[in-house]
Backbone:
């Protein structure tokens, strides 16, 4: 007798068996004595990050800043990475190389120079760009929206799902950097830029899935530019997934969403003055609050590196005042060294399953020797999968007990710390029948 176990796959390096699947497995295992997996399905999560990369790579007051960025990206591993203050194509390629060292599936949209400033000096020193995991997203098109100051960059993505040919899910991503500085004149410049954006958004279907990520440079929600974004009469209304709309500037009550400045020390480039502003945002269209096809996960909005410590107000992010349980000193120090802004992150969720490659485990992945393991599990991996595969070891309760990066054709895994029992080897990146082994010590 063959039966099916449903596995819920989440792309944030967690794999959980659904309750119903666990019940089916436990009951049917008693009757049959063996397990046959016939499908992988469920929901998929995506991790987004926006980051003001502070005049990268021309700002060189801190040497080897790319190493700090690699530390950050290795830790968070965004599926979509959106940036502003990117200077040139060599900087764009340096970031892509760093991402591909983590995951070779990363690709970038085409780097384009800012055109909105052509009539005011054609400086072309600050651009936006988007990077994406090509196993999860397909870049359908990209466009530029010109304004009085800087472009908005529009990237249209399609989720690389099994259902994409019949029920495609499209995500429209806009990345921006609004005019900086306080004062009425600069506020009006920001408003004019947002109005140009809405002239473009008004041409899109009202039910479009919109992400707007950027350095807005707004000091309070009462600014005209921000009020335009959340205007309920818009064809497409944007919402703040953090649900922290207010007067952010110099207000320690909003320290949890503050993103600038990470520094009090001068001479590093960028702005000093300590942690006192919320300039950086990821907003979504209102329909993404509860759309089962694609929505943001409630509570997932975060400022990466911000421990939400009220003592951090007006301090540098790597100081003891900014310590906490979520982000270590090493993480906060890398953020401090790389930019005067913190990244913002958000997770999306779809009810579709990714169109991931199927593997024959008999040919590509195999357990060497017996699958009765006392101390060491030895795996043989096909050479073509090196540096492309991440394996999960799951216990009989559906819990991930170990994650293994495949960087060799022969992998030895210490199983001495595993409890006795049945375990399975699977992956979120490739679909294959899980390998089963038993720890006997």
Residues:
């Amino acid at each position: 007798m063959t039966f099916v176990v449903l596995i819920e796959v989440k792309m944030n390096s967690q794999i959980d068996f659904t309750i119903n699947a666990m019940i089916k497995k436990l009951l049917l295992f008693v009757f049959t004595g063996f397990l046959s997996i016939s499908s992988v399905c469920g929901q998929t999560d995506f991790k987004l990050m926006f980051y003001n990369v502070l005049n990268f790579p021309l700002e060189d007051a801190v040497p080897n800043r790319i190493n700090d960025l690699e530390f950050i990206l290795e830790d968070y591993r965004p599926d979509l990475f959106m940036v502003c203050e990117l200077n040139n194509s060599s900087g764009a390629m340096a970031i892509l190389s760093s991402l591909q060292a983590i995951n070779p599936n990363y690709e970038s949209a085409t780097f384009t120079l800012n055109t909105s400033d052509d009539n005011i000096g054609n400086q072309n020193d600050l651009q936006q760009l988007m990077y994406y995991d090509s196993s999860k997203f397909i870049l359908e098109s990209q466009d530029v929206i010109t304004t009085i100051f800087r472009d908005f960059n529009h990237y249209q993505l399609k989720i690389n799902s099994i259902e994409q040919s019949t029920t495609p899910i499209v995500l429209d991503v806009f990345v921006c950097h609004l005019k900086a500085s306080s004062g009425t004149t600069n506020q009006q410049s920001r408003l004019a830029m947002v109005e140009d954006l809405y002239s473009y958004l008004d041409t899109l279907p009202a039910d479009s899935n919109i992400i707007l990520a950027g350095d807005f440079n707004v000091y309070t929600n009462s600014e005209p530019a921000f009020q335009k974004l959340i205007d309920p009469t818009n064809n497409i209304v944007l919402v703040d997934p953090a649900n922290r709309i207010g007067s952010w500037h110099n207000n320690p009550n909003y320290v949890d969403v503050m993103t600038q400045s990470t520094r009090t020390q001068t001479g590093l480039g960028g702005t000093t003055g300590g942690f006192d502003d919320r300039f950086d945002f990821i907003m979504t269209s209102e329909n993404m609050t509860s759309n089962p096809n694609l929505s943001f996960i409630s509570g997932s909005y975060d400022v990466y590196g911000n421990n939400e410590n009220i003592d951090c107000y007006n301090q540098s992010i790597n100081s003891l005042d900014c310590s906490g349980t979520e982000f270590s000193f090493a993480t906060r120090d890398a953020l401090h060294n790389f930019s005067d802004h913190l990244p913002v992150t958000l997770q999306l969720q779809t009810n579709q399953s990714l169109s991931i490659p199927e593997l024959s485990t008999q040919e590509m992945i195999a357990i060497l020797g017996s699958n009765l393991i006392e101390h060491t599990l030895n795996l043989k991996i096909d050479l073509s999968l090196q540096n492309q595969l991440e394996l999960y070891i799951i216990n009989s309760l559906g819990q991930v007990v170990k994650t293994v990066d495949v960087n060799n054709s022969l992998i030895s895994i210490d199983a001495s710390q595993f409890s006795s029992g049945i375990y399975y080897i699977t992956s979120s990146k490739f679909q294959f029948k899980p390998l089963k082994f038993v720890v006997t010590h």
